[in-house]
Amino acid sequence: MTTYIIRRLLWAVVVIFLVTLFVFLIMRLLPGDPLFLFLAEAEVGDMSEELLAKMRHEYGLDKPLPVQYIDWIGSIFRGDLGYSIYNQAKLTTLLTQKFPVSLEISIISWIIGHVIGLMVGIAAAVRRGKWIDSTFMGGIYIGITIPNFWLAILLIYLMGLKLGWLPLSGWTSPSADLGMHIKQLILPVICLSLMGMASTARLMRSSLLEVLRQDYVRTAWSKGLRERVVVLKHALKNGFIPVITMLGMGLATIFGGSFIIETLFSIPGMGKLLVNSLYAHDYVVVQFSALLSATMMVVSNVLVDISYGYFDPRIRYT
Amino acid sequence: MGKNVKSTELVFNTTVRLTEWQRFRMLFFKRKLVVVGMVLVLFFVFIAIFGSWLAPYDPYETNVKAILAKPSRAHLLGTDVLGRDTLSRLIYGAQTALTVGIIAVTISTAIGTILGLTAGYFGGALSMVIMRCMDMLLSFPMLLLALLIASLLGGGIHNVIIALTIGAIAPKARIVHGQSLSTKENDYILAGRAMGSSNVRSIFRHILPNVIPTIIILATMQLGTLILAEAGLSFLGIGIKPPGAAWGSMINDGYKYLLRNPVLSIAPGACIMLVVFGFMMVGDGLRDALDPRLRGTQ
Questions:
Q1: Cross-chain Cβ contact B280/A142 below 8 Å
Q2: Is the pTM here over 0.95, yes or no?
Q3: What domains can be seen in chain B, in order of their start residue?
Q4: Is the reported ipTM for this assembly greater than 0.90?
């Protein structure tokens, strides 16, 4: 077990190393550098070659690529992360502002989405073929196929513009106005949680259906156990295994996949920061955000693999 | 087939002999939703192929006299801010979505399959390198990966296809890798080797046929995902370039005029949903019919 975990972690480090190379190369291959775009946008009267060269030197962008790469990795290990040219701020400062915002939305959506998804999936499996199953399955198909940015627009149209129940977009800090904060959270959370909810429900249903057919479940029934015990204690533990992978992925993707929703609702989170910085070719921000997103995915995959053993003791690590 | 014979009896009753094709048809069309999905897919494919004859207007033709027109007999779904006919743009958008989706799925399936087979069959250092690279690609959310690559290449339909292709390779490579790992342990592979079959022959004649059902199912399901991703990229303005008709960018364009003409945003989104649903159902049907693990369970 311990050797398995260690080996798994070592591979994770290799993958993360590949991620850093990949992101770094993609950003450097982009035509035009951040300084050029920044100066063009700022409309500095004399955008001379000298000024550009001087600033490139200041930001270390005139060094050879391998040196820049090593500088970047080094800065991550020092915890300094570099300076964002486009935002004119240190990346660490930016992160302390933006990261909690995204984290809050992601975690709330993840919890709501997956808790409801699990319950829906279990209910549909237990009542297979009944009206409750067909109703839930209909909802599940809608949830999986609906583009979440389109759902966002529909909700903005209906709830915001037509009914006027909820604010259209924006972000208020919870300390300033908690009521407003919650109101503004509702629509983005619905949009972000629906996809996870639907896919979890679908997987939970099919996985539980498979388990409910097994002999040991029939044994549990014939012992005269109540339905609640059979389903929740005996069947669910095994039926849960395929779902864990999805839960882990969900937490990681919701963070990296929320940039459209953040942009639509003008939420000042990581996603919006990432997209704006990508347009501005702001190396430091894009590289680190992409790295962060990928690292979360890799780490959650490792955790998921390790947790299999708890849910199914038959799984042995070799 | 006889009227009084149930489909399950036909499939599993050994006295009734069925060809593979009959068996496939029976399992595939068993669920009503799969039939609905198939009809949807065929409908959109038809529209995409005959779009230039079906569209009532030129999708790029602007008309100052009919700006943001409400749905009427002249413009069934109204017009956008440049006076372009929404219905015609939807029809051309179907072309865009399907072209991008189908090309990206085909190429990525081919590459992913070859990588997965090679890694699975040869193992060792080669497999290690391939699979770690796939892990690396998999650690990005699909849309983020496509976004990074698309912004590197710039917009336009070709580059969107390339970006989505790269984004779609890794899931297939990983699954094909897993399947070929278990397939190559079979005795018939060894027998083939003993009879002098080359590596290439072993891979393509002996292992590949075992993997094909999985690939077909996966590719169909991925088509929906890719169409969604294309819409996402176009929505962000990194996908199809402006005059081009793409559902994602139509949603974004219409978003600004939500109160004056909500159809502009709502119609393309509904199209995306229907296409994605169609492909998902067809994928489900194919899985019911093709997945060897499900044989005999229905």
A1: no
A2: no
A3: 46-57+86-290 (1.10.3720.10)
A4: no
